[in-house]
Here is the input.
Amino acid sequence: MSASRRFSVAHESWPIAGSFSISRGTKTTAEVIKVTVEQDGAVGVGESVPYARYGETIDATLDAMSAARPEVEAGCTRADVPGVLSLYAARNALDCALWDL
Here is the structure.
């Protein structure tokens, strides 16, 4: 476990060129959660989109990430992610950031 690990999470709104349509609706932006994990001079970044269809929201995902901060900064590994986060969008973003790291 590394004391030098830093963790940040942000909500970003990415415009879609035109629109993206499926049977459940049309989107003109992608509401994305961006996670950054920094450790020993390396930086890992991961992104994910919470889906209402699965009971996920931007706010709930941000809250889950904030609650997971102590475990992430204490050095959790990719294997630890399912035990640290229950929302799949949050898991995905953190897992990707740890892979990238």
